[in-house]
Amino acid sequence: MNIMNNVDFVNTVMVVAAEEPQGPEFGKSSPLGLLVILLLLVGTAFLIWSMSRQLKKLPESFDTEHPEADQAFDEGTDPSGPVTSTDAPVGDQDPTSSAGTDERRPADT
């Protein structure tokens, strides 16, 4: 039964595809379509122009001759030390302990 439905569907599509389009407005477009296309072209040109200006601002290479500043920044973002097995999980902390026991260093910027 399913095969018959597929055959009927294919026959219907073939008949519809073989018919010539009709109507007085077929094949005509309005000036509004041209306006939309022109606006899209202008917007695309503006985006290309803007991106080329941004790309010209980039350095030739991102390799630094003196990476000390980057390394100092990276060291400041790490926690104070590795987690050991003696550290209690976050959920098992004593609620009476003070909240100011965070020993992490701020990043040197």
* DSSP E strands, number: 0
Helix/strand-derived class?
mainly alpha
Radius of gyration: 34 Å
Low-confidence stretches: none
Mass-distribution shape: elongated
**CA distance, first residue to last residue:** 74 Å
The sequence of SSEs as H and E is HHH
Helix % is: 40-55%
Q: Calculate the mean pLDDT score and round it.
A: 74
Structure description:
This protein is mostly helical. Helix content is 49%, strand content 0%. The longest helix is centred in the middle third of the chain and has 26 residues, at 31-56.
Task: Please outline the helices and strands.
Blueprint: H1 2-18, H2 31-56, H3 68-77
Brief overview:
The protein is an all-alpha fold and 109 residues long.
Highlighted features:
3 helices, mainly alpha, 109 residues
